[in-house]
User: Fold ATP-dependent 6-phosphofructokinase from Flavobacterium helocola.
Amino acid sequence: IKRVGVLTSGGDSPGMNAAIRAVVRACAYYNVECVGIYRGYQGMIEGDFKEMGPRDVKNIINKGGTILKSARSADFRTAEGRKRAYENLVAAGIDSFVVIGGDGSFTGAEIFNEEYKFPVIGIPGTIDNDIFGTSHTLGYDTALNTVIDAIDKIRDTANSHNRLFFVEVMGRDAGHIALNAGIGAGAEEILIPEEDFGLERLVESLKRSKDSGKTSSIVVVSEGDKIGKNVFELKDYIEENMPEYDVRVSVLGHMQRGGSPSCFDRVLASRLGVKAVETLLEGKSNFMVGLYQDKVTLTPLEQAIKGQSEIDMELVKVSDIVSS
Ligand code: F6P
Assistant:
C-alpha cells in the first residue's frame, strides 16, 4: 500500500471532516501518500482527485459537512461506471481507498472489491446509526444533540400555548434518532419504524397525558415510522378525534445533518480514521472499522451491510416510564 484514496459518500454527517483529517494524517505518519476523491464515487468515475497532505486538512476537525463533498452516485451502480472508476484509480497510482459513508456506500465498495480485488476499508458515517458492527456511526451523536436542542426550543413554545407538537426527525429506516433524542428531550410518545405501536396507543397515551395534568405534549415521529400516517396526517387525525388538543407540526429535516461535530464524534472519527489506514497497511481489506464497547473493531463489510443494527427495546420501556 503506497497511495491511499479517501472519499465521503452518501448522505453527509458531522464528523466526516474529522475522519478525512485522521486518514490524511495517518497516511503521512506511516509515510504513504493520500489522495482526496471528490463527490464520492462520482468523483472516482470522473477522476476528480487531489493529493492531500497534513496541512490540507487543517482547521476542519470542527466543521460539519465534508470538504471532499458527497454524492449518491447512480453511475457507480453500473459495471461501466465502476470500470471507469478503476481505470482512473490505476492511472492516478491509487492502490487502495477508505470510504466514509453508510450501507449504500459499503455495498458499492463490496461490489468494486469483488470485481477488481481493490483494497478498501469502510468508516461508518451516517446520522441514522443504522449500521451493524458499530455502536455509533459518525454524526449520530451530533445529530442527537441537534435534535434535543431543537425539541427543547419547540417545548418552550408548546408550553406557552398548551399545544401538542408532532416533531418529525430523520432516520429513513431506523428509529435510533427518534428513540434516543425522544427520551433525551422528554417526549410523551415516540414513533419508530421498527415497531408499529398503532394509533390507539397514541390516542390512549395522549388522553392519559391530559388527564394527568400535562399542558403540552411532544410526539417524536421518525420519518420512516410504520403507523401509516405522516406527521401532517397525524395532526389531522388527532384534531378530528381529540378536539381538546391544539396541534402543530415541525419537520426538522436536513438541519439534523449539519453543524459542528460533538467531541464524541470528533474522537470517534479520529480513532476510526487512524485504524482504517493501519488496517490497509496490515494488508487487510473489505472491513468496516467500528466501535464496540469503546474498542475499535473490524467487521467484514458484507456483515456490516447485511446485519441489522437493532433498536434496544429496553429504551421503549424507559421512555414509557419516564414520560408518565
Ligand atoms: O441516511 C441519512 C439521511 O439523512 C436519512 O435520515 C434521510 O432519510 C436521508 O438521508 C435523506 O437523504 P437526502 O439528503 O438525499 O434527501
Q: What stands out?
A: The first strand starts at residue 3 and ends at 8. The first helix runs from residue 16 to 29.
